[in-house]
Design a protein that fits this description.
alpha/beta; Oxidized Rhodanese, domain 1; CBS-domain; five-stranded parallel beta sheet; four-stranded mixed beta sheet; elongated
Length: 226
């Protein structure tokens, strides 16, 4: 079975000169792919097509995400064909996109929410006092603060209206847990539409691990999303 690799491991393999192969259909490859990756859809991965790959270099295949089975099937087939060093970037293109890595392709999807996210939101830890957080929010352009873990993962939201309480209370005692978030690769137009439907003004943008990237304003998304 091919070795599954993470994004960091993919970076190291690329530095070693690995061949990166996207096995999604041609139209998805054209929309955007890992820079330098070859487009070789699984349906066209014949024995003859595989001979265009260098057997003396590592081969890394990827598809859309961990639920897509195209890359593990492609990796297994390459091993059957005698390739000795085959890797599967299981998290796939979605992982590449949510980590805001550069994309190469023929089509430009337009502005993404990650490009428009601003890093100026008030933030605090669960053990911070409400009185201290209130002062941050009063100076903030947003009527809330975000409660983050040590690693920057979004744990909750503290709305200004919830801060009118005992200043000695802890943020964890009054926060709204699990606020909705979006990934940075989403289009500005799409997220703006979702916010409008919910009559919301801001989107909290995080990585796939829940780490805060920033806040995107609906007005900015509508302006750039066309």
């Amino acid at each position: 079975m091919a070795t599954a690799v993470t994004l960091a491991e993919l970076d190291r393999l690329i530095a070693r000169g690995a061949q990166v192969v996207e096995v999604l259909p041609d139209d998805q490859y054209a929309e955007g792919h890992v820079p330098g990756a070859l487009g070789l859809p699984l349906k066209r991965l014949t024995r003859e097509a595989a001979e265009h790959l260098d057997r003396d270099r590592p081969v890394v295949v990827y598809c859309w995400d961990a639920l897509c089975d195209l890359s593990p099937r492609a990796a297994a087939w390459l091993e059957e064909l005698g390739f000795e060093e085959v890797y599967d970037y299981v998290a796939g293109k979605v992982d590449w996109l949510v980590n805001r890595r550069p994309v190469q392709g023929d089509r430009t999807p337009g502005a993404t929410v990650g490009e428009l996210a601003r890093d100026d939101v008030a933030r605090c830890r669960p053990g911070d006092r409400v009185g201290e957080v209130r002062e941050q929010v009063e100076r903030s352009p947003y009527p809330f603060a975000l409660v983050l873990s040590v690693g920057g993962v979004v744990l909750g939201r503290l709305r200004r209206s919830r801060l009118a309480c005992d200043p000695e209370l802890l943020a964890a005692d009054v926060m709204e847990p699990g606020p909705s978030t979006v990934r940075p690769h989403k289009t500005a137009a799409g997220v703006a539409q979702d916010l409008a439907q919910g009559d919301l003004r801001w989107a909290i943008v995080t990585t796939a691990l829940g780490e805060l990237i920033g806040i995107a304003a609906r007005a900015d998304l509508e302006r750039r999303g066309g």
